[in-house]
Amino acid sequence: MTEIETIESILTTKLSAGTVFEPSSVLLEESFVSPQKGTDVEEGENLVDEQWQTGPARKPLIPRYPKDIQVAAIDSTSLILGHVADGILGAIRASVVTKPANESKRKLMRYGPYIVKVTEQERESRYEQLYRAVYGVEAHYHPPDLIATLDQSRNLLERYLQQQTVNECKNSLILIDGSLAAAAVVRPSSFAEKLVRDAARNGNSVVSISKTTRLLLERSRKNILSLVEGVTGPCFVGGLRERIKQNQDRYVGQIYVAKFTPLGEPFRVDLPENTPIPHDELLSLVSGLAGDYGYPEELRLAHMTCVLSAIEVLELQSAAILSYGLVMKEELRARLFPL
Amino acid sequence: MYLLTKDKDDLWIVYSPEEELRLGDSVRIGNIVAQVVDLQFADLPGVLEHILRKSLIPKSETTERIHPEVRNILDSLIDQKVAVAKIRGRIVEDAQLSGTRKTVFRTGLTEFDVSRSKSEIQVLDQNELFEMLNLKSGPEANFSKTIATAPIVFDLPADKLGINLITGMKGSGKSYSAKRLLLKLIERNVLTIVFDVNGEYLNLWKRDENTPNEYAQYVKILTPHLRAPRGCEIPLIIPLNEISYDEFASHLNITQGTPTYQSIMQFWKQRTGKQFDLNDLEAFASDPSNVQNEAVQMALQGRVDSARASGLFGPSSLTELVKSLHQSGGAMIVNLSQVSPWERGIIVEFMLRKLCDLGESRAIRAVSLFLEEAQLYMETKSIVNILTRMRHVGVFPTFITNDPRTLPDEVFTLLDNLLVFMFRNEEELRHLAKSGLIDMRSLDALKNLEQKQCLAVGNITSNYPVFLEVGSQTGVMMGGESRKLIP
User: Fold this and answer.
1) Residue pair A181/A192 in contact by the 8 Å Cβ criterion
2) Cβ–Cβ under 8 Å, residues B81 and B21
3) How far apart are CA B250 and CA B486, in angstroms?
4) How confident is the model over B118-130, as a mean pLDDT?
5) Contacts of residue B157, Cβ cutoff 8 Å, sequence gap at least 6
6) Domain check: are B46 and B127 in the same one?
7) Partner of A77 at 20 to 30 A CA spacing, among A112, A287, B394, B468?
8) Are strands B164-167 and B417-420 parallel, antiparallel or unpaired?
9) Given an 8 Å threshold on Cβ–Cβ distance, is A112 in contact with B65?
């Protein structure tokens, strides 16, 4: 597998000294700067048949804390630090949080922040390079714009770390953010299959958790997350993949909607078919990890430790200027209309 | 360094971790001179959330892959500092009589011509500052060094000592510094009388337990009830005619209004303005023409015997000793550590009267007087007397206390110099502000001082507050005669 150093060197090509840099405005009053999200190209909209004979089969969940199982969670973030000629300067950071079996304290492996340059001239070639390094095949898709390129670069780093985690961990619960859609336009169809296959070989159970989904109930056009609305306790609804109307083969494993705590939010959960732990039990274990808003604590920590605070964004802007010898440009509007 | 804001007479200066600023540093911004009195973090919005997030997983459990150039800058923002600097005055070019111009320091600030973006902030070289303040500090000076990024040596100018206060909490180094000042005064041929209530100055003449030091010939310890001289220690004897009949009666437990008391009073009144001693009192008591009642005679004889046994009364050579040490310079340590509170009062009053008489008669020009914890042996009116009257006869008092609240307000209003060591108590700090020599914010800085570090302000520093660290004295036993529970 490609070494992380290769990924890092592709992500962080240096800028030439004297490049003019216009930093994005940062409000220190805002604790965190919103991550930059590109157009959602992971997974298109799809419909789910809702012709249940007696309504959707909601099963109660009995939370069980996975004390004797290692848990790993991966998340990443990206944002724009500012603009350079013909492009943007962004930052990407990823976190892998691990709770070893029979231990209560967690470990954090953090990657970055990496200062990433995305320009019109090189965005396609850089993306292709990164894609090849992560997936080992030629890219058949190119993000449509600079922001999407930055976001997809982040996505590639996250996929790389997911793959690395399933390779390195044994008999673990591996929590990833997002869906397990196999044949998304942004990645080769083989990736998800390889991920779950490698995970199973090491005795790992991959649990893919999405806060949002584009799967809609066919008749009501409501989001499938509505299936657990109004239910008082932790519960889940399964068997949704078979009900997807189109391109079922684009999805890997089974699709569930679950609420992990009584007052928590509903989530879409994708579970591969061949998990070492049965699905019902797996969902109970995730429910045992659920903290605020019913979101698994390890995944929340992975998110919290990778997002960039306003202070860090200012520091990264300074690092960009100092390390690359950039020349700072004030915003023209601010100069013309200072008040 | 950047100027953030001005709040009354405080300047807030933002500086990065790479830049160095220290408590006591003086900075120059344009022509303004300000002194750093507090150092703190620049409190940025969002810092709490930033740190809380970092604390989610302990540092020890975190591994990071991060490029060195990014790592160097990450977290630099939360380490930005703010220095609070008190405006002390400004630098002006002053025309000299010779026609040349000299850079001098002036207090006050009537204009504020500085720019946040353009004005350069630089740490003022202490030699340059002292030159502007007309403070000379030669390389041979070893009393102290300044507390600053680039410290220099500083000697207390003895010629500028007036009414002085050395204060600080117990263990802060005030007594040590007072002793160093005393030795400096000896070197400058000044006579200092010390009221040593805790026996802290008794070893100053020793190099070690068995060897006298270079100061030994200039140090005399006056110990009450001592039978014979012993090294530098000599008996402190008070001539009977130097105390009042009331003081004598109280000392020997003679109740007021009794026939014995009446006889004592009669004896004293008959001899007003004359010299007399215990032999005279004995003769008076045994003469039936003076005391007819045999019981009163016996009572008086008993008191004479007791007074004689105490060794406190008798002919004194104190005047000659004062005159002699006044010529050579030296220290007279009045050992009050083992006498009763009543005796302390008599001894101190006697000593002060003696100094006053010698000053008034111009037998002595000037002496320095160290009063350790004066409240333990002096009434407020006596302290005020020292401040208002005795200074005119050449007695320059230095009060040494760990609680400035025990001193009357007059000390603070008339104070010439203040040497203040560490205090943690707000009330004591507020009390010191009464002197008007120093502001409350600067006094707050004292909470952060280490042992033997102090703030000096007054005539000795041309009224510019100077943070000092008092140096160590070699060849002198600086410790007193304190005993330890476990040796």
Assistant:
1) yes
2) yes
3) 38
4) 92
5) B135, B136, B460
6) yes
7) A287
8) parallel
9) yes
Q: Which residues of A199-219 are buried (b: 16+ CB within 10 A; e: fewer)?
A: bbebebbbbbbbeebbbbbee
CA distances from A34 to A79, A147, A150, B166 (A): 7, 13, 14, 58
**Helices B341-360/B380-388 angle, 10° precision:** 20
Whether B142 and B181 have beta carbons less than 8 Å apart is answered as no
Identify the domain containing residue B278 by its residue range: 241-310
Stretch B426-446: mean pLDDT, rounded? 91
Residues of B in contact with A311 (CB under 8 A): 44, 46-47, 50, 77-78
* Residue A36 binned pLDDT confidence (cut-offs 50, 70, 90): low
| Residue B131 and residue B161 share a domain | no
Residue A108 has its nearest CB partner, among B62, B69, B78, at: B62
Cβ-proximal residues to B135 (8 Å cutoff; 6+ apart), any chain: B154, B157, B461, B462, B464
With CA atoms as reference, report the closest residue to B349 among B245, B227, B238, B249: B238
Residue B213: give its domain's CATH number: 3.40.50.300
Please list every residue in chain B whose beta carbon sits closer than 8 Å to the beta carbon of residue A114: 67, 70
Pairing state between β B62-65 and A107-119: parallel
Residue type, position B200, single letter: E
B56: nearest CA partner in chain A: A301
The beta-strand segments (E) located in B22-114 are 26-29, 32-41, 62-65, 81-95, 101-106
Residue pLDDT, tens place only, A269-307: 999 998 999 999 999 999 999 987 999 999 999 999 999
**CA distances to A166, B308, B338, B455 from B233, in Å:** 87, 20, 14, 34
Identity at B177, one-letter amino acid code: S
Report the SS3 class of residue B417: strand
What residues pair up with B105 in beta bridges, in sequence order? B91
Of A29, A115, A310, the CB nearest to B70: A115
Token pair 């039978």 is found at: B227
Q: Which residues pair with B234 in a beta bridge?
A: B222
Residue B455: beta bridge partners?
B420, B467
Q: How far apart are CA A67 and CA B13, in angstroms?
A: 52
Mean pLDDT value of segment B26-36: 94
Rounded to the nearest angstrom, the minimum Cα separation between B95 and chain A is 45
**Which residues on A lie below 8 Å from B16 (Cβ)?**
none
Range of the domain at A110: 4-336
ipTM, two decimals: 0.85
Are residues B179 and B84 part of one domain?
A: no
Cis check: omega of the bond before A234, within 30 degrees of 0: no
pLDDT in tens, A100-145: 999 989 999 999 899 999 999 888 999 999 999 998 888 878 888 8
- List B368's β-bridge partners, or say none: B192, B396
For residues B298 and B418, membership in a common domain is answered with no
Do B306 and B322 fall within a single domain? no
Q: How far is CA A86 from CA A142, A197, B381, in A?
A: 18, 41, 85
Would you list the DSSP string of B418-474?
A: EEE-----HHHHHHHGGGSSS-HHHHHGGGG--TTEEEEEEGGGTT--EEEEEPPP-
| Number of structural domains found in chain A | 1
B420 within a domain of the structure (yes/no): yes
- Please report, for residues A70, A252, B303, B418, the alpha-carbon distance to residue A274 in angstroms, rounded to integers and kept in the order given: 18, 10, 112, 82
Contact A105 B58 (CB under 8 A): yes
Please report residues of A whose CB lies closer than 8 A to that of B66: 110, 112-113
Mean pLDDT of chain B: 90
Residues in chain A closer than 8 A to B76 (CB atoms): 315, 318
